[in-house]
Amino acid sequence: MPRRAVGEGATTGSAPGARLGADFFSRSVHDVAPDLIGCRLLYDGVGGTIVEVEAYEREDPASHSFVGLTERTKVMFGPPGRAYVYLSYGIHSLLNFVCEPEGDAAAVLIRALEPTTEIETMRSRRGKARTDLELCNGPGKLTEALGITLAQNASRLDRAPFELLAPDGERPEVVTSPRVGITKAVERPWRFSAAGSPYVSRPRPD
DNA sequence: CCTGCGATTTGCT
DNA sequence: GCAAATCGCAGGC
């Protein structure tokens, strides 16, 4: 694979279609988060296109890392390009991508996908979901659809069964809005989504 | 369409 | 002890 010249892909930190590894994630979480919109995420061959994420940084009252290094947060302080999966409300596994160099603590919460691959597998796992719009339009829903659990915490994202790829072609326009479901630092506009996508979670960022 | 509430477990005070 | 980066269902409009 030829390395791409400076210019194209410069804002993404990756060439079109390339697998995203530690170099992509070893940057400011505020640069990585919008660059993930339009990327493709598969787990064991099941998944789709990322249409919504949120950024969480070290000095961020809404981030788990705000309290410092603990048993739970040590993955966020570890090497970039790994999964940080935690249990939300005692029920849902939420998937994050660890960003910034080891020793820093930042992560991107994956909030919604546009399903593209193995849709019937996702539908069978999601049970009550009626339409494709409801399969992955929320952080707890997409982990259920992809079969991601706490067992995947600290996994590398550039190795099977994960497959995380830069967009092949054009990138969607990205819009920002306040983050969802938090009670601290609620005003920070660190939610990023694909403009106009019907696959984003609620409330709609419009 | 919208709002309200219970489920269920863990991590940190 | 309690709050939590959520979800699905019930009920009202």
Can you walk through the features of this model?
- It is built from five helices and eight strands.
- The chain is of the alpha+beta class and 206 residues long.
- The protein is 16% helix and 26% strand.
- A hairpin with a 3-residue loop joins β3 (83-88) and β4 (92-99).
Radius of gyration: 16 Å
Note the main sheet. 8 strands, antiparallel
Topology as H/E string?
HHEEHEEEHHEEE
Detail the poorly predicted runs. Answer: 1-10
The span between the termini is: 39 Å
Shape: globular
User: For the residues shown, what is the average pLDDT?
Assistant: 93
Which class do the helix and strand fractions yield?
Answer: alpha+beta
Q: Hey, roughly how much beta strand do the residues contain?
A: 25-35%
Helical fraction equals 10-25%
Number of strands: 8
The DSSP helix count reads 5
Task: Briefly say what this structure is.
16% of the residues lie in helices and 26% in strands.
How do the helices and strands line up, and which of them pair or pack?
Layout: H1 22-25, H2 29-36, E1 40-43, E2 46-56, H3 74-77, E3 83-88, E4 92-99, E5 106-117, H4 119-126, H5 139-146, E6 162-165, E7 174-177, E8 191-194
Antiparallel strand pairs: 1-2, 1-6, 2-5, 2-8, 3-4, 4-5, 7-8
Helix pairs in contact: 4-5
This protein binds a DNA duplex (13 and 13 nucleotides) through residues 54, 56, 62-64, 67, 70-72, 86-92, 94, 96, 109, 111, 128, 138-141, 179-183, 201.
